[in-house]
Each structure stands twice: as structure tokens, then as C-alpha cells.
Aminotransferase
Amino acid sequence: MELAQRVQALTPSSTLAITAKAKELKQEGHDVIGLGAGEPDFNTPQYILEAAKKAMDEGMTKYTPSGGIPELRKAIVDKLKRDQDLTYEEDQVIVTTGAKHALFTLFQVLLNPGDEVVIPAPYWVSYPEQVKLAGGKPVFVSAEENNDFKLTKDQLKSAISPKTKAVIINSPSNPTGMMYSREELEALGEVAKEEDLLVVSDEIYEKLIYTEDPHVSMAQLSEDLYNRTIIINGVSKSHSMTGWRIGYAVGDKAIIKAMTSMASHSTSNPTSIAQYGALAAYTNSEEEVERMRDAFSERLDAFYEKLTRLPGVSCVKPKGAFYLFPNVKEAAVNCGFRDVDDFVKTLLEEEKVALVPGSGFGAEENVRLSYATSMDNLDEAAERIKTFIENHQ
Ligand code: PLP
């Protein structure tokens, strides 16, 4: 049976090959250090587990409204007011099956065939595929490493065509960890206004910031930008709840209504029990969130220091998320490898350290390392990479 064209156009996940290889080596009994993870390594906080158990015991195990239980939508409205001084009504919120499905549904309701979405590279792997699945066309713009991987106003302008409908802003970013300042967002926001673009603001790493710089959302900058921004967020990264699959989108009422209608025919609703867990996440103290953030911050400092001492490796210091995205081109070339993909593959084979090549994120000279793992693992990984480079020079 021939598969639909939309599936044939999908790019297989670049992380898959390396993950499969790492798994194979582990099964053979090798001591593999995996730095590919896109999820916090902490348990979900206890008070969230308790809330979900209570929900189950009390029979909250049935369908819910497609857009999410009203209590959770209200808690999200309160969170946005508390954290970002943003005012939304509950019908501007949809709770989704993870932030990923919020994005997926948004592109489905937004794009007609051929509509373009500007995606700054390096980008999170799912953006281009989701745009393509909705019939749209991803338009990539390379944000320069010497500009900390940030898109500039001129770059955004040059990517615009009459078909451009939206731009994706992911701050802090996966995979680079960079974060836009208010001024930088204001400059990009001017283009969004001039060109009448929707801004898709993926803020999933909002709570994982390791500098004094405040997190700023495009929606906070002006009434115009508030109206043209859809914020995407969720509990996966902030509360270590990746498996619960709870995210949300907020913004323009008509868009949220269309998304809710779409969700009613696809997921029906996000898992009821998980919604009660997320409700506890948003209505309790953030002590646990801060504890996890502090642990990430410590690991970042230690690992960054070790990594940047390696010959041929340079790295923009991330401000948020839990990834490092060093440029290893020089190290790869000096070691005689064809390219960075080859460097990554051989590193796994010889030293049993699994990284993700940057090619899948639109940056061929870089690799992504996640520090969502123990300090011991990070120390050991840095030693092994050092040995690997030394052995090949
Ligand atoms: N956006 C970015 C930038 C991410 O890195 C991820 C997860 O890796 C998501 C969205 C999706 O998160 P969720 O687990 O809520 O679907």
C-alpha cells in the first residue's frame, strides 16, 4: 500500500539513528553515557503525583472538555498573569496533549497549502515537519553563531514573501539555550507588525533560565504583539512531567476556538488524570521547580567549563534550557573525520558517549549535548570526549 504524500515528505528524526545505536551498544553490555535526552532526569514532584492519584480515586477518569478542564484553564490564566503580567480570558486557552500537539494543532488550523513559516535555525526538529504536515512550507534562516544564534531584524525581513504567515520564536531555545532580550524581541516584533505575521512563541523552557536576565515573551511587548502572538508552553520541562503530556496554547480567541474544534476530532481531550496533575503544578509553590533549575545551573557551569577546554571545541554559553550546542567542526577536522556526523558516530562507537549531531537541527558544525543527567555522568562524558579527541589527533 502506498503511503500518503504527506508522510513521504517527512524527514526521519536525526536523533533516531544515534539513539538506536546507543541502545544496541547498551544491550551488548557497554557502558554508554547518553547525552541525547530531551527531558529532565528528576522525578515529577510528589505533590503532583498525589494530586493525580487523588483525581483517579475520585473518579476523574472520564472525558473532559476538549480544551481542558475549566480549573486548569483558569490556573493557566492565573499563571500568565502572575509570571508575565499577561491578561487572558479562559476561552483564549487550550490545554493540549503536550506542547508538541499544541504546535501541531496550531499549524493545522493556520496554514493553507504553500503558506510559509519562518523558522530560525538552529531549530527544534519538529517545527519543519509539523509545518510540512499542515501543507505549509518551512523557510529557514540561519541565525549566526557569532550572534549567539539569534535571528536579527534584517534576517527576518529577508525571509519574508507574500506567502509568509508566521514566524517561530523559541526562547530559551532548544538546541542552543540562547534567550532573546526585550530589545531583540522588539526589533523582531516590528517586522512581525509591518509584515502582518503571526508570532508562534514557544516558551517551553521559560522556567529554566540560569542568568539574571528576565524571560520576555513577544506577547508582553505591545497590544499589537499581544494580539498576534500565540504562546506555547506546558509542564513537561518546568515540572519534569514529560510523560504526562500536558501543554497549552494561548492567544487569539478565534484561533484557539479552531484549535479546540480540531482537538475534539483528534485527541478529544488531554488525559484527565494528567490535567489534575498539571493543575497541582500550576497552583502550588514553585520550590521544586527552582530546586531542579538550580541543579541544572550547577551542571551547566561545570560541564561548560570542561567542554570548552577541549581542543577544537567552542561554545556559546547558554542562558536557558538544558542543552549545550558546541561547534566541534575544528575538532572533527583535526581528528580527520569527514564531517561532524562522522565524529559523533565514531565517538559513540569508541568511547560510548551518545550526542546528537547538529545537522538535524539545521547546524552542521555543532552537536547537542543534554546536561539533564548526573554530574558524575557529565564528568565522565567530558573525560571520554577528551580521550577521544586526543586519540585521533
Ligand atoms: N518545544 C520545544 C522547543 C521542545 O524542546 C519540546 C520538547 O522537546 C517541545 C516543544 C514539546 O514539549 P512537550 O513535551 O510539552 O510536547
Q: What stands out?
A: The domain at 62-283 is CATH 3.40.640.10 (Aspartate Aminotransferase; domain 2). The pocket of pyridoxal-5'-phosphate is lined by residues 38, 98-100, 124, 170, 174, 202, 204, 234, 236, 242, 247 (CB under 6 Å).
